[in-house]
């Protein structure tokens, strides 16, 4: 790996500011695939309309300049970069950002290169997203948790963004969000089956015109409120609270200690 880094990536002929296809004399845009592997849902803030997701931020693309010979004896089929290797410091990257992101905490990362120059990066991430949440149907409400991505500096003439194994251009294809078994006490995630077998959802690409065309990829899943949880843990307790409050009206006004006790009990419940 050290020899490869010295001969290919650290070589003065490699320019990370130039896209792979442009460096090879091609006018075709670079196809960049994305997938978010969901591990957990940290929190869903109904007051702020935000959700925090934890998982792995995965990107795939091909850079022929990074190709190497794997046919010789002892040659590796895939090169795994050192732990401290940061792709943005050494090689061309599609500079993806999250359009509806609020915060993005990055953790450990992994980068590998295949003999044909295919690059795979995976980065541990905790991401807080801004959502469009409406509660007019509570406790039977359903919400779409989505992540909208685009290249920060490259339009669709340079980069075509799509979900993993998807197709270039506008439309729905590929696998944009995936997870194994996942469960939440308050919400059903992509239906009840996700708690048993996980789920995979496609990505949707929309081409937006900002003087030139830009690919925006949305990966998402739906959450549905567990009605029984809300009724048992919120609504019933609220009704009991109100019942205690109104019971004070039926106590003889002359019995001051009893009326005072009925007034204080709800305050103690609140604390």
From TrEMBL:
Listed GO MF terms: extracellular ligand-gated monoatomic ion channel activity; transmembrane signaling receptor activity
Sequence ranges assigned to domain Neurotransmitter-gated ion-channel ligand-binding in this UniProt record: 9-226
Annotated Pfam families: Neur_chan_LBD
InterPro entries registered for this protein in UniProt: Neur_chan_lig-bd, Neur_chan_lig-bd_sf, Neur_channel
GO CC aspect terms: membrane
Protein name per UniProt: Neurotransmitter-gated ion-channel ligand-binding domain-containing protein
Organism of provenance: Pyrodinium bahamense
């Amino acid at each position: 790996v050290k020899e490869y880094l010295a001969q290919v990536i650290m070589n003065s002929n490699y320019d990370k500011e130039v896209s792979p296809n442009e460096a090879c004399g091609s006018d075709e845009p670079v196809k960049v695939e994305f997938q978010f592997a969901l591990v957990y849902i940290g929190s869903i803030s109904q007051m702020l309309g935000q959700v925090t997701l934890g998982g792995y931020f995965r990107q795939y693309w091909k850079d022929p300049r990074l190709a190497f010979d794997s046919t010789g004896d002892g040659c590796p089929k895939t090169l795994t970069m050192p732990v401290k290797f940061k792709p943005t410091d050494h090689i061309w990257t599609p500079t993806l950002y999250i359009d509806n992101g609020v915060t993005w905490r990055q953790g450990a990362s992994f980068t590998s290169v295949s003999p044909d120059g295919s690059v795979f990066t995976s980065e541990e991430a905790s991401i807080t997203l801004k959502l469009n949440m409406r509660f007019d149907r509570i406790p039977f409400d359903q919400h779409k948790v989505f992540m909208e991505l685009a290249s920060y500096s490259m339009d669709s003439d340079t980069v075509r963004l799509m979900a993993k194994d998807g197709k270039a251009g506008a439309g729905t294809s590929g696998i944009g969000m995936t997870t194994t078994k996942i469960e939440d006490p308050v919400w059903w995630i992509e239906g009840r089956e996700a708690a048993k077998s996980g789920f995979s959802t496609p990505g949707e690409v929309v081409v937006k015109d900002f003087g030139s065309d830009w690919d925006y990829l949305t990966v998402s899943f739906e959450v549905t409120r567990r009605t029984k949880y809300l009724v048992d843990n919120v609504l019933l307790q609220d009704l009991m609270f109100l019942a205690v409050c109104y019971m004070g009206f039926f106590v003889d006004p002359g019995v001051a200690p009893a009326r005072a006790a009925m007034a204080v009990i709800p305050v103690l419940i609140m604390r």
